[in-house]
Write a structure and sequence with these properties.
The protein starts with 48 loop residues before the first helix and ends with a helix. The chain is built from 13 helices and 8 strands. The protein is an alpha/beta fold. An 8-stranded parallel β-barrel has the order 1-2-3-4-5-6-7-8, surrounded by 5 helices. The chain is globular and about 50 Å long. Strand 2, helix 3 and strand 3 form a beta-alpha-beta unit. Helix 2 runs parallel beside helix 3. It has one domain: TIM Barrel (Alpha-Beta Barrel). Helices cover 33% and strands 10% of the residues. Bound molecules: 1,3-dihydroxyacetonephosphate. The site of 1,3-dihydroxyacetonephosphate has 14 residues, from strand 8. The site of 1,3-dihydroxyacetonephosphate (13P) has 14 residues, from strand 8.
Length: 356
């Protein structure tokens, strides 16, 4: 398929409404984005940070003055030396901006290309059945590399509004790198999102933060949106609290990305992945809030306001609503449950659960 045959054009819809209390503490009463303003039918979030930002309204902002997080586990033997870095916090107001939710299915190493076609068809039919509004909630699938061409062809031929994502990318350009996949190859397949730094690659393949940063930069330079995964292990959680490692991983990953480039951050506590034991919505919110504040410190409030933060780790239709109610959680990265078309559809339809 040629580039011209992409399912959607490259126009961007700017989030317009400012009804979302992004950083208000305490239990939020409403889903963070009621994006009912996307009448143009474009499912895509704004790629430009500046366009998404609205003037700062005093009542809608929150000063960044507190330490990022407290440890969730009441460990009596908390090492003093491992305390999360708590540099002087800067009071940076973050504008209130509506961010289009993103529900992303990371298939991991599941489904060959024929199974992939059948699965995407099922997901597409299922979402059509429930009249899913892709402008309201963006949906992406991340098949294995060998499936990408088949899925791309299907999305293009059937004009499906599902986004295509890849699970990894080489930090290198094309060349003598046996077994690697260059960002340019993915971009050519209409890949919109690229996962970088998933814990299964950090741990299983020894990927350093520098490598993750280089991958994010490579994806971004090729015109795609890196989905930067961060998350603490159970040991990290006990020793340093929930946010210290995710914050450090985020900071490292952003090092190679030009300010203003679009990216997504997925907070995936390693202990929650595939365990059936998700983080609590409150913990997800706490860490996502800390991540957003760190982005504000590092890259400015406009970028912090526009960047979407996902939660991942044992997300299912029964628990998605709790996460999506959190003001700093803008979507979910879903593993196991994304392989079941009916369950994935129920997750995508989270607004029904949120309001129920
Ligand atoms: P599970 O949803 O299977 O826990 O996996 C989460 C994940 O790792 C998504 O990237």
């Amino acid at each position: 398929m040629s580039d011209e045959e992409r399912v959607n054009d490259e126009g961007a819809n700017e989030p317009e409404n400012a009804e979302t209390p992004l950083v208000l503490p305490g239990p939020p009463e409403e889903p963070q984005a009621e994006a009912d303003d996307a009448e143009d039918g474009d499912t895509r979030p704004s790629p430009t940070v500046e366009a998404a930002v609205e003037p700062v309204v005093e009542s809608a902002v929150e000063p960044i003055v507190e330490p990022a997080v407290e440890p969730v586990v009441e460990s009596p033997a908390e090492p003093v030396t491992a305390a999360p870095a708590a540099p002087a916090e800067i009071d940076i107001p973050i504008p209130t901006v509506a961010r289009p939710p993103l529900i992303a299915g990371n298939w991991k190493m599941n489904l060959d290309h024929l199974q992939a076609i059948a699965h995407v068809q099922k997901v597409a039919w299922s979402l059509k059945d429930v009249k899913h509004d892709f402008a309201d909630v963006e949906v992406a699938v991340f098949p294995p590399f060998t499936d990408l061409r088949s899925v791309q062809t299907l999305l293009s031929a059937d004009k499906l509004a599902l986004r295509l994502g890849a699970q990894d990318v080489s930090p290198q350009g094309p060349g003598a790198f046996t077994g690697d996949i260059a960002a340019a190859f993915l971009a050519k397949l209409d890949v919109r999102y690229v996962i970088v730094g998933h814990s299964e690659r950090r741990q299983g393949h020894g990927e350093s933060s520098e490598t993750v940063a280089a991958k994010a930069a490579a994806a971004s330079a090729a015109g795609m949106v890196p989905v930067i995964c961060v998350g603490e292990t159970a040991e990290d959680l006990e020793a340093q609290g929930a946010a210290a490692v995710p914050l450090a991983q985020l900071e490292a990953a952003l090092a190679g990305l030009p300010t203003g480039s679009e990216y997504v951050v997925a907070y995936e506590p390693v202990w929650a992945i595939g365990s059936g034991d998700p983080a609590s919505p409150e913990q997800a919110q706490e860490v996502c809030r800390a991540l957003r504040r760190r982005i504000a410190e590092l890259r400015g409030p406009a970028e912090a306001a526009a960047i979407r933060l996902l939660y991942g780790g044992s997300v299912a239709s029964q628990n998605i609503a709790g996460f999506m109610r959190q003001p700093d959680v803008d979507g979910a990265l879903i593993g196991g449950a994304s392989l079941d078309a009916a369950e994935f559809t129920r997750i995508v339809q989270f607004r029904k659960h949120v309001t129920a």
